[in-house]
Sequence to fold (137 residues):
Amino acid sequence: MRTVYECDFCGKRFESTKMCAQHEIICGRNPKNKITDKLLIKASELLTDFEDVLSIAISEVCGNEIEEMKKDAERAGTDNCPFTVYERKYVLKNVLIKAERANHKLHGLKGTEKDFWRRRYQYLIDAVKKELGNDKS
Fold:
């Protein structure tokens, strides 16, 4: 019979008490590890907003090519693309999925709903669209 130790917070199992104790100190579900750094929280919110801005810009510049771009991002590996594409592969895929949704959603929306992100981040959207357009030609 084998003894197994379980994290009190997440239920992950370990073979020794030492390994379990080390894990519990850094476990993401441990209430003592709650992230309260306001700068980190704000940065994560801005990153989400920027993903949305990039998504809208991509949907407007690339339109029909988004599906092909998603396939390229999926194939990204260490030897077939720049390091930045490979390193940010999953973020890029998420942005492209959002761009696809934005492409479909923006056609069906009217008035204030349609222009919400454009009004909020118009400068960024225009800058990103310009950069994407320059690379496209």
Observations:
- The chain has six helices and two strands.
- The mean pLDDT is 78.
- The radius of gyration is 21 Å.
